[in-house]
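cron nightly-structures :: item 1 of 1
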Amino acid sequence: MTKNQRLILWIAVLASFVAFLDGSVITVALPAITRELSGGVTTQQWVVDAYLITLGSLILVAGSLSDVYGRIVVLRLGLIIFGVASLVCAIAPTSEILIVARGVQGVGGAFLVPSSLAIIIANFRGAAQAKAIGQWTGFTSAAFIAGPLLGGLFVDLLSWRLVFAINVLPIAVTLYLLFLLKQKDVHERGVKIDYPGAVLGVLGLGLPVFALIEQGNYGWGSPIIYLSMTLGIIAFAAFIWREKTAKQPMMPLGLFRVRNFGVGNVATTFIYAALSLGGFLLPVFLQEVGEYKATVAGLAILPVTIISILLSSWIGGLAGRLGPRLFMAIGPIIGGAGYLYFVLMDAHPNYWVEVLPGVILFGLGLTITVAPLTSAILGSISEAQSGIGSAINNAVARVAGLIATAMIGLIIGSRLELDGFHRGMLVTAVLLILGGVVSAIGIQNPKPGAPVTAAVPVQSPQESS
């Protein structure tokens, strides 16, 4: 590895680490945020979804921006936006300012992960590329071990505001490393940015999400709600039409005609909707109802990450030999069984008896699912399409999480209590099981001797939370 390659690897790792760390700490801090800024479940939903709206709708644009302006330029811009927004989140005096800043954070996040992975792929080849991607995955996985623990300690001992301020140091270091790199950026010729598609995407996601979250405050009969929902659906339909007719679409719809790509993204929708719904409700319930400290609530789901790190490589190897179908079918069902176990939980759960067994089941199911899911989707398309395929699958996962989080009020009511929590766990379990059923019916194993595209991890399992 040359000096420049080592520098590039550290830049990619630190840039992604920031986005992954932010995703792993936020749910632990939600109860403390609403205790200080008020707003209840609605504010908690918006703190999560404001980030996911901009992230999910702009992540497809980020690839085009990288081609036009250069990967390093876009990465630097993402770091600056994310850093400034993080500081605003840390000092936000009201929930409204925090929510707006989280939306701006999502803009920065949309530029970070795809660009950081793209500069690895552009600067490494062959076995060196696989090794660099493995190191990138390993370091970013560490964010999920550090995130809940750091977030819980900050909330319990200092302030929830440090959950956002913690981003500033790695961002500053990454910007300094980019200054040292002094590498000439690469620009693709003839690439155009689909600005109308980007605007329609934001409106098509944002307006229905606004209606779903705020219907509890205004009621479905309010013009604010039904007009937002109607206009959002129209905008989303226009977005699909735009992507079908544009010369350079952000989301080539023809990819969905590839069986494993299309079916895999349907499974992704169910699975990542479940991850977001369960990942939101469990740590919040443990704190607000179960009276766990934030640190303990953060550590409660840590076995999921540990199981993933220990077994994901082995599972990926097995799936490579046996094909992804079996793993994608049984993995979500095992994960769903873990959430069904949480339905037995009482208002003050004993961790070792009522929480840990379900966490272990879910962790095993998720680990069995994620690597084969990524391989099935990206292995079904050509290597030249793997970049846009990864971006589309990432966007599908984000949008699924966005909608699931927006529907929490419909599932649990205006506040989180035991009955609402049980309904949420049941819905989460059903979504996971549906993901398994869809995979069992629709996924096909590659034919013996068929070339398999090397799959790049789309995202770590808990990132969608």
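cron nightly-structures :: done
The chain has three domains: 1-191, 195-247, 255-465.
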